[in-house]
Amino acid sequence: MATILEDTSRTFSEYLLIPRLTRKGQRADLVDLGTPLGSFAKQKTGRLKLNIPVVSACMQAVSGTQLSIALARQGGLGFIFCSQPIETQVEMVRQVKSHKAGFVQSDSNVQMNTTLAEVTELMNRTGHSTVPVTDDGTATGKLQGIITDKDFWEFEDDLQRTVGEHMTPYSDVIHGNEGISLREANELLHQHKKDCLPIVNNKGCLIALVFKKDYVDHQRHPMELLDESKRLCVGAAINTHDYKERVPALLEAGADALCFDSSDGFTEYQMEGTQWIRENFGEKIIIGGGNVVSAEGFDYLVEVAGVDFIKVGIGGGSICITREQKGVGRGQASALLEVAARRDAYFEKTGIYIPICSDGGLANDTQVVIALAMGADFVMMGRYFAMTNESPTPKTTINGQMYKPYWGEGTLRAQNWQRYDDGMSTRKMVFEEGVDAFVPLVGPLADVLDTTLYKLRSSMVNIGSDSLLEFRDRAVLTLVSEQSVVEGGTSSVFQFTSNREYEDKNWSGTG
Ligand code: IMP
User: Fold this and answer.
1) How far apart are CA 299 and CA 439, in angstroms?
2) Which among 15, 33, 211, 429 has the fewest CB atoms less than 10 Å away?
3) Ranges assigned E (strand) in 57-107
4) Of 100, 62, 79, 391, nearest to 255 (Cα)?
5) Which residues lie with the beta carbon below 6 Å from any ligand 1 atom?
6) Can you give the pLDDT at residue 105?
7) Ligand 1 mean position to 59 CA, how many Å?
8) CB burial class (10 A; 0-12, 13-18, 19+) of residue 447?
9) Atom of ligand 1 nearest to the CA of 57
10) CA 163 – ligand 1 centroid, Å
11) Cα(323)–Cα(412) distance, integer angstroms
12) pLDDT exceeds cutoff 80 at 44
């Protein structure tokens, strides 16, 4: 006979945090949001630590190149979707890794005999105002000089003259030598008041450029999630069908973490996939497994399969209809609380810490706060990021409002990519587990995330905590009744729906 659990399946919106003592000097801007991504043993720190507890969902409508770059710049991690051919996913990973790497390969280069007209056209097309001049016009040719838009006047000089006549010759170019550190390169830029520093090898060939604007940019994004070579970090989703081909290509492209993308990860397929990666690439690779909603699922993926982090959540996603279609899933709060308790017990028993991720169904900022208070090490969100400028979908106007399309990975639309693959893997889809929808456009990722994280930091201060670990250790939560939810809203006041309406009524006090 089936087992019926005694507890009810609960969701985040049924809980509230009780404030604890806030100590003097505790401030939202001083709170540390760092959190581990990869598993680690006691006394050691996580192999990869996120600077904020947020990752983006492995979804076509969410985690493309631009979004992954924008999120890594804020300190989180994007997981580039795997519902696409291996080559295109690899290319996306490459693009994130090569973005503003500190040392960048020059993509606009000319030769001495290039005309000023041609270099002007190149500068206009690429937006680059500093162009290296090499013997063969490539990014790795022998460096002969540098030409910038300050070396000639587009409307005064004869544009049929050559670059060689206007450039700063190599002998006068301040440059760095191969092996120089980024700090040393920035010091040279500072000392010589330059905007761009070419780096050359011992044969005088160009190998990279370092820009002052990248340094300034980095100062403005102190939380950026960078690897040891100062490249942005990026994660990649994988599946249990083609991992033998996909994983080597993604690792070669520089993916910092892998994550199985599946609505139900409590399977022997994920165990086999994880073990294959371990056998071929060792323990260093960070592998996420899931999704699970029980301690039993956690045990299997950790003890039998050997994953590094666990995603928790089935059926809660905003575009998800798994529970309706299959009767499978669990309230996100109940699932998270059970798995977090098992993670803590496992740590107690073995000294190994396995981070857990609350994935899907976070409908507002408060739920992010509750998920982290309940023990999630980080959260994964789809809808939240699909609404930003940087998500990979086009902006669409509906009834005068801006929207973006957002669809589940379990829709026919997402699964269609296989038809364009090799023709071998076409699977007939009998029913869908997700819907195809639209979400309102909310603007740049940095702006919305900033607000969410500020609310999180403020809540953490209410609980008297300086770090996420302290937050969940000190958190005391209470279940709320339907009536107390009503009480939590506004009551007996009249609200305008917008400032505009307020001004239109001319009640601003000045009219
Ligand atoms: P959201 O943040 O509520 O939009 O949920 C995103 C999460 O929903 C993803 O990270 C996945 O775990 C899950 N998901 C994505 N596509 C589907 C689908 O088609 N059906 C069910 N769940 C999905």
Assistant:
1) 36
2) 429
3) 77-80
4) 79
5) 57, 59, 263, 291, 317-320, 322, 359-362, 380-384, 408-411, 433-434
6) 80
7) 8
8) exposed
9) 10
10) 54
11) 18
12) no
Q: Whose CA is nearest to atom 7 of ligand 1?
A: 360
The two tokens of residue 13 are: 């919106």
CA–CA separation, 133 and 147 (whole Å): 7
Catalytic residue numbers?
320, 419
Distance (Å, whole) CA 297 – CA 129:
55
**How many angstroms separate the CA atoms of 358 and 449, rounded?**
17
Q: Which atom of ligand 1 is nearest to the CA of 381?
A: 2
Mean per-residue pLDDT, 382-388: 97
Q: Evaluate if residue 108 carries a pLDDT over 70.
A: yes
Q: State the sign of the Cα–Cα–Cα–Cα dihedral 270, 322, 66, 86.
A: positive
The CA distance from 220 to 400, in Å, is 35
Strands, DSSP E only, in 408-451?
436-440
pTM (2 decimals)? Answer: 0.81
Burial class (CB in 10 A: 0-12, 13-18, 19+), 287: buried
Predicted pLDDT of residue 228: 87
- CA distances to 101, 194, 200, 208, 292 from 179, rounded to whole Å, are 15, 20, 9, 11, 46
Query: Which of 59, 63, 77, 81 to probe ligand 1 with, by most ligand atoms within 8 A of CB?
Result: 59
Give, using CA atoms, the residue closest to atom 13 of ligand 1. 317
- Tell me: pLDDT of 420 over 90: no
Are 210 and 230 in contact by the 8 Å Cβ rule? The answer is no
Q: Work out the average pLDDT over 92-110.
A: 84
Instruction: Report residue 378 as tokens.
Output: 């980080």
Question: pLDDT at position 511, please?
Answer: 37
Cα-to-centroid distance, 316 and ligand 1 (Å): 7
What is residue 289's three-state secondary structure? Answer: strand
437 C-alpha vs ligand 1 centroid, how far in Å?
Answer: 12
290-314: average pLDDT: 97
At 183 the three-state DSSP class reads helix
Q: Which atom of ligand 1 is nearest to the CA of 386?
A: 4
Structure token pair of residue 388 = 């930003």
pLDDT band at 148 (very low <50, low <70, confident <90, very high): very high
**Chain mean pLDDT for the chain:** 91
Report yes or no: 78 and 71 within 8 Å, Cβ to Cβ.
Answer: yes
Strands 378-381 and 235-238: unpaired
**pLDDT tens digit sequence for 424-441:** 445 577 889 899 999 999
Q: What are the b/e assignments for 62-88, b being 16+ CB within 10 Å?
A: bbbbbbbbbbbbbbbbbbbbbbbbbee
| Contacts (Cβ under 8 Å, ≥6 apart) of 266 | 292, 294, 296, 297, 300, 301
Distance (Å, whole) CA 138 – CA 132: 9
